[in-house]
Amino acid sequence: MKDDDRFNALITEAQQAHFSGWDFSWLAGRSQSTSPPWDFRQLVMDYIDYSEAMLDMETGGGEFLSQLPKRPLLTCATENYPPNIPIAKARLGNLGIRVYQSEEDGNDLPFGNHHFDLVINRHGAYDCGELMRVLRPGGYFLTQQVGPANEIALNEFLASHITPTYGGTEFGFGALLTEFKQAGFSVIRAEAAGIAKEYFDIGAIVYYLKAIPWQIPGFDCEENLPILRKLHEKIEEEGKFTSMEERFLFILQKPDQ
């Protein structure tokens, strides 16, 4: 296939590919990431062993929660993005897990005070005051967050004048840690890591930017075909394009009293 034909085919395929929930399986074989130095899934499982009531905040389509080998008898989930809610309900309903619609910023959780002894959150919004309210005394909050420098190489190559939506210093590791401490949490564990992510064709990048529009807000493929072609040529020549994912891990405990 001629290079122009390949470029156009990859762009078109990515634009037409379906994305729903939090399912990135379309990218299998087209991009890959190294693992952070912690295993968030295993950490969640370790705390589930001592939990009676758990909340999964911003569950997406319920992918992560549904794949856990065990859950507390009382397990609930929230999701703020309306198109994800029927997907999550269909996936989690058969497991006896009720899904609630939540606010985008993690405010106003639809639960009573001291409802959960474990709250987990993977890449979602939260509000420290609400976490303190719904957690039981001595309860735990486990979260993996995306840092403001996440995939910044994409912005620098494709649109250096556009910063990620969540690229401000208020989303940095130190700022989040300070926020948790000021809210009254005890910090059990706090770590930051940079993780290499490789893209093997331009279609994988277009698909990612479609699924995560806040990485380069307002980026339009049709308007940016020349710069996409340059990145395509770089990938074809070097075999891949590498960026860095920024990940934070926090394990926090609400005081016993």
Task: Summarize the structure in words.
The chain has one domain: Vaccinia Virus protein VP39 (Rossmann fold, 3-Layer(aba) Sandwich), CATH 3.40.50. Helix content is 33%, strand content 25%. The relative contact order is 0.18. It has 257 residues and is an alpha/beta fold. Strands 1-7-8-6-5-2-3-4 form an eight-stranded mixed beta sheet, with helices on both faces.
Fold blueprint:
Layout: H1 3-16, E1 31-33, H2 40-48, E2 53-57, H3 63-66, E3 74-79, H4 84-93, E4 98-101, E5 116-122, H5 128-134, E6 135-146, H6 152-158, H7 173-183, E7 186-199, H8 202-211, H9 225-238, E8 241-253
Parallel strand pairs: 2-3, 2-5, 3-4, 5-6
Antiparallel strand pairs: 1-7, 6-8, 7-8
Number of strands: 8
Q: State the end-to-end CA separation.
A: 67 Å
Helices and strands: which structural class?
A: alpha/beta
Helix segment tally: 9
Strand order of the largest sheet: 1-7-8-6-5-2-3-4
CATH class: Alpha Beta
What's the average pLDDT? 94
Instruction: Tell me the strand percentage band.
Output: 15-25%
The parts where pLDDT drops under 50 for at least 5 residues are: none
Backbone CA Rg: 20 Å
Taken in chain order, the helices and strands follow as HEHEHEHEEHEHHEHHE
What would you call the shape? globular
Question: What brief labels describe this structure?
Answer:
Rossmann fold; eight-stranded mixed β-sheet
Question: How is this structure best summarized?
Answer:
This protein is 33% helix and 25% strand. It has 257 residues and is α/β, with parallel strands linked by helices. It has a single domain (3-253), classed as Rossmann fold.
